[in-house]
Fold:
Amino acid sequence: MFDDIPISWAEFRRRSGRAPGGDVGIMGELGVMIERLDSEGVLVRLPHQPDTIGDTQWNVVHSGVLMLLLDTICGFAVMQKMVTPVAIATLDLRVDYLRAVPAGEDIFATGSCYRYGRNVGFSKGIVFTHDPDDPAAIGNGSFMLGTAGDPPPMAAAMRGRAR
Structure:
């Protein structure tokens, strides 16, 4: 279904049926491109957007953009590990901001799931501009599996058991 990577986030959402009513989400609106998507994780690129500048005096990208990228990519990495996709929700996301991102540069983010349980998935992400060994931010997240009205996988298994 996705052998034509790189692919825009918007097109990915459309093809995967995750764009109800044509809604491509904030990542689609920002023009994010999926550069790599495999069992090891995901790599995306956010092309330079003037609207992402958070401090015009210093001409740097708003740190909230980095948080948005890490939350999305870390969650997406967890979803990539699922055999049967279910809705997820961020339980915790720790972000270490290591340096400012100069405006005018593309931003890259990688995410990988390093542990997947019955109810929670754990992942890590890195935001960088040119070199992944010189990150601008690093994130670690935990994500609840089975949300938005879906019973968590463990809760479904517990139904019917005497308490």
Remarks:
- The chain has a mean pLDDT of 87.
- The radius of gyration is 17 Å.
